[in-house]
Write a structure and sequence with these properties.
Layout lengths: L1 H13 L7 H11 L14 E8 L5 H10 L4 E6 L9 H12 L13 H10 L8 E8 L4 H15 L2 E6 L3 H14 L8 H8 L8 H27 L4 E5 H6 L3 H10 L37 H8 L9 H9 L1
Parallel strand pairs: 1-3, 1-4, 2-3, 4-5
Length: 326
């Protein structure tokens, strides 16, 4: 019951409610959460942990894959907690403790947790590894609200960096989500045929108040991220706010992200040098919906009419607004 109240408190906090009570929350956590030994605040290290906080349809897989494959000192795993059936609160906690406090024993092996187990094993190998930043992607809907207060304490103690991945274009998120449901394909198409099937599939979006409420739900997710980031900053946790549209337009931002993740590493002991980084190349992951939103929406006129004059009118884009004025 207390865990449910904690999750509800965080959601209400984004809506401006006053239920979120830091004092009582801290008291409860002191009763149930062990105290983690704090790492020194200064000094270079051989391992620097991080977590990318994201939600669906924000380009997170592309970002993690680029960091993992095209840098030599960042080990960026994708989602560890995809199987919600296998990840209860206890297993979440034990896996996270083992990842970020490497003095702790590994959690019991479980076939449903094979990706996390493999990642933990990899981060503990010493032979042949130089200094490395290591981390994974954690989606908002994968039990984060229930673990957040406890997890924040661990981040502060173990110097875990947090990257919050945002997206500005809620309309494209809605198109992508609806398209995925309609085509019954994987979230990330592996073949050219699947990619073309998604690109040529028109969707019918909700209109009127229903569409505005749907877009509002996307906005609320990113507002929750902002609340989490504020919590982290107050706790002394280093954070980075990354926006998909910015890094998609300027791939050199990957170097900025990498610099943030590795800045605590003892790079003098590393054979990895910036000039040895592979060129950033987006050839293996492409933007699916690269055209104007109107090219993918069957009932575009109704959608456009809904957005014009609303707080989401900017999502139409200058091209659409200019085209309708001329």
């Amino acid at each position: 019951m207390m865990r449910l109240r904690l999750a509800l408190a965080l959601v209400l906090r984004v809506a401006g409610a006053s239920y979120y009570d830091n004092a009582s929350l801290s008291k409860h956590l002191d009763d149930v959460v062990p105290t983690f030994p704090r790492l020194p605040d200064a000094g270079l290290r051989k391992r620097s942990p991080f977590v990318v906080v994201a939600t669906q349809r924000t380009g997170s897989k592309w970002i993690m894959k680029t960091l993992r494959r095209q840098t030599c000192d960042v080990d960026a795993e994708s989602e560890l907690f995809t199987d919600n059936h296998g990840w209860d609160q206890y297993n979440h906690r034990e896996a996270i403790k083992a990842i970020f406090d490497q003095s702790l024993p590994l959690p019991a092996a479980d076939g449903r947790h094979v990706v996390a187990q493999r990642f933990i094993n990899r981060t503990r190998r010493e032979d042949g590894l130089g200094p490395v930043a290591y981390g994974f992607k954690w989606m908002l809907n994968q039990g984060m609200a229930e673990q957040w207060p406890w997890f924040l304490r661990l981040c502060a103690a173990r110097r875990v960096k947090l990257v919050f991945l945002h997206r500005r274009d809620y309309l494209r998120m809605a198109i992508s989500t609806k398209n995925l449901k309609n085509t019954a394909l994987e979230a990330h198409p592996e073949t050219e045929a699947d990619l073309e099937a998604i690109r040529h599939s028109l969707v019918h979006l909700a209109t009127g108040q229903d569409l505005l409420e749907e877009l509002g739900k996307y906005a609320a997710k990113f507002a929750l991220m902002d609340a989490y980031r504020s919590d982290a900053s107050r706790a002394g946790v280093e954070t980075y706010r990354l926006v998909y549209e910015d890094i998609a337009a300027d791939h050199t931002m990957f170097h900025d992200v990498r610099d943030f993740l590795v800045k605590d590493l003892d790079l003098a002991r590393s054979a990895c040098r910036p000039e040895r980084l592979m060129p950033l190349d987006n050839s293996t992951d492409v933007v699916i919906h690269s055209n104007r939103p109107s090219a993918y929406v069957a009932n575009w006129r109704a959608v456009e009419a809904t957005l014009r004059g609303s707080r989401y009118q900017h999502l139409l884009g200058e091209d659409e607004l200019r085209r309708r004025r001329t």
